[in-house]
């Protein structure tokens, strides 16, 4: 059922967080985009494997420079946006035990897309670029590629590349961190 935009009531991140703390949100993953509570796509086995493998590769090479968060981190990007990326790489500038990283502390965001590619490369990409996230990767499980987006400009990324199985990629801020694309995609390298 389509609902006219003027009939929607968009909530703020403060209201969203109070709803979550009070147990008013569904147990299945949700995130706040444009003030709307959106149900996240189900995460299948391949999605879970890709997140786990990429988290392990990033974690093995961190050497105290950054924090890898792949455990349901919601990231407040503005008054109406609180997406929940699959992986966030935050600079190790402070202890995040009591407060999540701010957008300006994030070096890299990763989304793994099995059924959500259009959303991840569309609305989510615009949100991350608009918040100034310097680098955004989308692991495309259907095409078996990484979409590597860098250099935010307004609500888009100026530099868009594709990494294939057999390639090794690195976060721009940590060029010595090598990620084996094939291993993350579950293919022999």
Task: Catalogue the unreliable spans.
Answer: none
Structural class: alpha+beta
> Main β-sheet, in a few words?
6 strands, mixed
The radius of gyration is: 16 Å
CATH fold-level topology: tt1808, chain A
- Helical content (DSSP H or I, runs of 4+): 10-25%
Mean pLDDT: 86
Describe the structure.
The protein has 189 residues and is an alpha+beta fold. Helix content is 23%, strand content 28%. The protein is built from four helices and ten strands; from the N terminus they run H-E-E-H-E-E-E-H-E-E-E-E-E-H. The protein starts with 12 loop residues before the first helix and ends with a helix.
What is the structure about, briefly put?
With 189 residues, this protein is of the alpha+beta class.
Attribute tags:
tt1808, chain A; 10 strands; alpha+beta; single chain; 189 residues; 28% strand
Please render the helix and strand layout as text:
Layout: H1 13-21, E1 30-33, E2 36-39, H2 45-60, E3 66-69, E4 87-91, E5 106-113, H3 117-130, E6 135-140, E7 145-153, E8 156-164, E9 168-169, E10 179-180, H4 181-185
Parallel strand pairs: 5-6
Antiparallel strand pairs: 1-2, 3-4, 4-5, 6-7, 7-8, 9-10
